[in-house]
Amino acid sequence: MRHCEEMTANRQTLAVTLGLSFSNPDLLTQALTHDSWRQEHKISKSQTYQRLEFLGDSVVNFLTAEYLFRKYPHDTEGALSKKKSALVSGVALSGSAKKWKLSKCLRVAEGVDRNNPALLADAFEAVLGAVYLEMGVDKCRLLLNAALFSRESEILKSDIFCNPKTMLNERAQELMLGAPIYFVLEEWGEEHKREFRVGVDVGGERVGEGTGFSKKEAEQKAAKIALERF
User: Fold this and answer.
1) Exposure check for the chain: N or C terminus, fewer CB within 10 A?
2) How far apart are CA 207 and CA 212, in angstroms?
């Protein structure tokens, strides 16, 4: 009970810190509710962050593309895509989530690692989805300017910038083999601890496979293995 009260207080602090004003306060709670909590507390699937994450993912991608387009007027499409891939990567988004201290606000089941980078990245996107619904795209842009775009230099100097998926795409295009295609080959584990095995095909040939605790992580590992073949 006390832990729940602490999480509620942390969510209220988050809203105040970020300048969020929700006409529907439950929306922020939903954005910070993991599916494992639903299973443990028998609540509706619609009360978890999955739908808001879906929306927030598109918001983050759009605003990041807009930011880069305006900042780098002379960059090619390839250069912009590479920067965007780094900025919207799970590692970069989980770093922004840590800046917001989202791990202290999350509702997760007992035993689930609330500091899992993939989980934090998803929650970050879900919060942006909730903000978009209540306060619009301008507020989302302000939040991303402070939490993500301000970290651009740091992110682009890190290993994130050497994104295996982006590098594989560039290599495949150079060889005129078309864009890489990713497939989920297998998934297993409990719903809140899923693991994925993903394959990647280039030019109609399977060139790599990888596993991870999210599809994005598995895709990155598959791309890294594929790059070794090229």
Assistant:
1) N
2) 17
Token representation of residue 189 = 């584990």
List average pLDDT for each run of 10 residues in the chain, which is 230 residues long. 65 87 89 83 80 96 98 90 86 93 89 86 95 96 97 83 79 83 92 87 94 90 86
Start-to-end CA distance of the chain, whole Å, equals: 55
Pick the CATH number of 2-159 from 1.10.10.10, 3.30.2130.30, 2.40.37.10, 1.10.1520.10: 1.10.1520.10
Which residue type occupies 109? Answer: A
Residues annotated as catalytic (active site), given as ranges: 57, 125
Same fold, 2-159 and 164-229: no
The three-class DSSP label of residue 207 is strand
Dist CA 186 CA 209 (whole Å): 11
Residue 124, Cβ density class (10 Å: 0-12 exposed, 13-18 middle, ≥19 buried): buried
| Beta sheet of 195-202, edge-to-edge order | 181-188, 195-202, 205-212
Mapped onto helix, strand or coil, the DSSP state of residue 188 is: strand
Taking the domains of the chain in order of start, what are their residue ranges?
A: 2-159, 164-229
Report DSSP state, residue 33: B
Strands 181-188 and 205-212: unpaired
